Amino acid sequence: MEPILVRQCRFALDPVEGVLRDVDIYLEGGQITCLGECSGKSGTIIDADHMVCMPALYNTHTHAAMALFRGFHDDAILEEWLQRVWRAEKRLTPGVIHEASRLAIMEMLSSGTAGFVDMYFYPEETAKAAEELGIRALVGPVMLENMTSIDKWAEETVRLAKGLEKLKLVKPIVNVHSLYAAPIEAVEKGLEIAGEIGVRLQMHAAETRREVYAVKQRYGKFPVEALRDAGLLSQRVHLVHMGWATSWEYQAVAKAGATIAHCPVSNMKLATAGFLPLHDLQEKGVTVGLGTDGAASNNVLDMFREMKAAVLLQRHSYWDTRVKALHVLRAATLGGAEIMGVRAGRLKPGYEADLVLLDASRLHLQPLRPDNLVSALVYAATGGDVVYTIVAGRAAYSPEKAEKFTEEAARIAERLNGFFEGEV
Amino acid sequence: MEPILVRQCRFALDPVEGVLRDVDIYLEGGQITCLGECSGKSGTIIDADHMVCMPALYNTHTHAAMALFRGFHDDAILEEWLQRVWRAEKRLTPGVIHEASRLAIMEMLSSGTAGFVDMYFYPEETAKAAEELGIRALVGPVMLENMTSIDKWAEETVRLAKGLEKLKLVKPIVNVHSLYAAPIEAVEKGLEIAGEIGVRLQMHAAETRREVYAVKQRYGKFPVEALRDAGLLSQRVHLVHMGWATSWEYQAVAKAGATIAHCPVSNMKLATAGFLPLHDLQEKGVTVGLGTDGAASNNVLDMFREMKAAVLLQRHSYWDTRVKALHVLRAATLGGAEIMGVRAGRLKPGYEADLVLLDASRLHLQPLRPDNLVSALVYAATGGDVVYTIVAGRAAYSPEKAEKFTEEAARIAERLNGFFEGEV
Asked: Is the ipTM of this complex over 0.95?
């Protein structure tokens, strides 16, 4: 892999140290090895005098292949929508998952995302697509009690983890859907596996009032309470949504060192009405990442738009402006990197070379200065402003690839639309 | 002006009648004159087989020239931010307003907006910029009691209206800031003028709790109540925000036939915590448009992103999904057109030729079908997907203009940044 010299970047943002102007950035062996004046270095040159450089973003919760269901009856009544999706999901094949995953991954790469935490069917297909396209991913089969048994799922999880060993960018994660769609014993078994292979366990938790009620009925406790009391809340646990948890559950999360994926757009679009107390949790030292959730409930995988939505939801819900652009920028970069298990999220030598270059000349970013750069990236930019996404030192998205991605997406879209023939 | 033939548009959306496939659209004399099979027509041809066509959007509340203040200390404490903006506003000149307005208008045109309702200083400069660039606008001097007198402002309003008579796309509007920053007598005088010249009166109302409290202290009534009881609520009144009004005030708005601008992003970003009951108002027959507010509190003028934010805010606040993509799409097109006083918002012969063409091949819109088109436009698209914005039959934004806009924006941004020298 040839090194990359990003030359004379107009603005370079590190989420901790701030903004630098007109710097070079050198990427070698998958890492950032020079920042500042890096002349004399050889490699592929990217002239970045009209670009902003920042660490890439991580999508800490998605169902990538659900790109298939983007806009599919998504404004119907929830029950009708679910019925239709479930009926269609029965017809899913590895081939459809592979194509829908490629579509989702191309969208993620083209909008500045360097890695994602996934939960969906046929995870080996999503893994394959991720490795092909050069994006980081955590994948694993989902434990859903009406579809599989704990033993069968555990076996598949271990087998997939084994199979992923030869991949460079894709790692396993243990996926338990939730405490309302899987028994707590699955979490117990899952954490055992997670400990053995050294990975996290991902589960939905406290997303809706309906779920909290169901768990309370089943276990006499709220979801995170139930986990904690069973000794199943640890730093290996990655909790998704968490908009309807109690103060003592958030406290328990902080104490255990569990991580959280905040999915503001999905929560709002599905009218869950809950919201994660992002600021309190960050203050308590909890690692929070942002997630788009699946395209069926978003309907995009654009982490730039997700950052803005996070601030908007937080401010509307708190009735104050305590959550700032920088808080969500850190969640999407540093927080996401930590959840993914990657030493990244910084623009600093020694960190993994996961970077985004954005076009600083876009109309909606003007006038752009060092003092309003963070604001521009969070409140004004979209994934559409991304020119390069570099993952582990390789340009996984670039102007050259943009056209190829669009062409492939058109071919995939045509085939995916065939999947719905007679259903829409 | 040469006619335009939009040929073989892949999908064409009318907000009332729905989706058509592979249709031609012919624009002549500023109007849509053919939809369907329009072969044999001559004019500028736009091959649209990879495009979606829909009515253009109208931004029913903005402070265009505040593009100058995009990201300017916008995450500081409100008071500090306001102090800084007010201090800087004292140094505004007609030249700065003209340039900042051009920047804002280029951004609006490039993101599918065909018209906007403005409220800011030096409105004659914004008018000039709008006419130059070919966008519709309603402008007028602002009545603010600490800056002018009713007589002086009334005189300026009439004079500007006179001056606008020779313009084609820009019309006057009577601007009273609000009941907390202007006396109710200004509204009385303003409505007199509005009646004489046949235009609307725009004012902020019920945006924040602080404002409602101030008006209650001053008049013993809530803002809309105060207007109604003084006989000042009519179909000429355009109320902006309205997130903190009472049920009887909404009822009064419906009865009077006043219109409303809903600004979801601004309301959330400024943590006003209020929200407009969009669905109830639409059910009551109230004409509601969407607005971005100024770039200082958004921070973009992208009506596509505003549509999505409207659904998200509504669903999060109502705890249900009653507000659908189509509701906000209609507000942004039909609602906006009515507020602007333009017979537009439809894709139908006889309507004004205000159209948007979007690139249907974008990754985040796939897979795209007639059944998920509205969902794609509201939940997935951004202004960045716009390829053409046609205003009154003229391509005010096009691929040819995109580059010129970017170059001009860079020049303007440099000069506007000079404006802040020593302040940031």
From this structure: yes
